[in-house]
Amino acid sequence: MSNPTIPDIVIGRLPIYLRALNRMIQEDKDYTSSHELGERLGISSAQIRKDLSHFGEFGKQGTGYNVTYLHDQIRHILQVDREWPMAVVGVGQLGRAVANYRGFQARGFRVVCLFDVDPAIIGQEIAGMTVQPMSKLKDEIQRLGIQVAMISTPLETAQLVADQLVEGGVRAILNYAPITLAVPPDVHVQYIDPVAHLQRMTYYLKP
């Protein structure tokens, strides 16, 4: 499915297009154009057409894009036209929020297991799942065929957790810990660091 010649920045824009198209479906729109998408997203229409051209021809001259068709095609490209089971490691306040979030399933993901090291948390029921000890992580993610995981642990333990996830077969990690992980080349990591984003924004503010 993946094509290494397509720039990662292009792949990164596809979920943004998907979100806008999903909104259009909710608005009962049948057709759209690269110009309309661009106006909604603050991206040039030329950039949108160029991005989509990496994957084929989806629109027709004069009529634009069928919203539902383009939405479904991007879901297929991103492989979220199926459901990916996910593990969450670190069940503090953030991990609990992730486990309870209901927006994942409609977008191709479902949290199926939770892990922690805290004896006070292990065994708790959260969102219909029992928090399991780290000693069971490898066997459980292999049993469930999990390739996607989220790390919401303190930074001191995030690398150890990542190592265990990779050893168990996880190939996509969403990392909330404020640390850059060392992983094999075939493992994809995305970083969510609210402080870093805040610091980036305050650069533009007037003192």
Overall description:
- The chain is α/β, with parallel strands linked by helices and 207 residues long.
- It folds into 2 domains: 8-77, Winged helix-like DNA-binding domain superfamily/Winged helix DNA-binding domain (Arc Repressor Mutant, subunit A, Orthogonal Bundle), CATH 1.10.10.10; 84-196, Rossmann fold, CATH 3.40.50.720.
- The chain has 8 helices and 10 strands.
- Strands 6-7-5-4-8-9-10 form a 7-stranded mixed sheet. A 3-stranded antiparallel sheet has the order 1-3-2.
- It is globular.
Summarize it.
This protein has 8 helices and 10 strands.
* Total number of strands: 10
Question: What is the rounded Rg?
Answer: 20 Å
Q: Domains counted in the coordinates: how many?
A: 2
Largest sheet properties = 7 strands, mixed
Structural class: alpha/beta
CATH structural class of the largest domain: Alpha Beta
Features:
seven-stranded mixed β-sheet, 19% strand, 42% helix, alpha/beta, 10 strands, 2 domains, three-stranded antiparallel β-sheet, 207 residues
List the helices and strands and how they pair.
Blueprint: H1 8-26, E1 31-32, H2 34-41, H3 45-53, E2 59-60, E3 64-66, H4 67-77, E4 84-89, H5 93-100, E5 109-116, E6 125-126, E7 129-133, H6 137-144, E8 148-151, H7 155-168, E9 172-175, E10 188-191, H8 194-202
Parallel strand pairs: 4-5, 4-8, 5-7, 8-9, 9-10
Antiparallel strand pairs: 1-3, 2-3, 6-7
Helix pairs in contact: 1-4, 2-3, 6-7
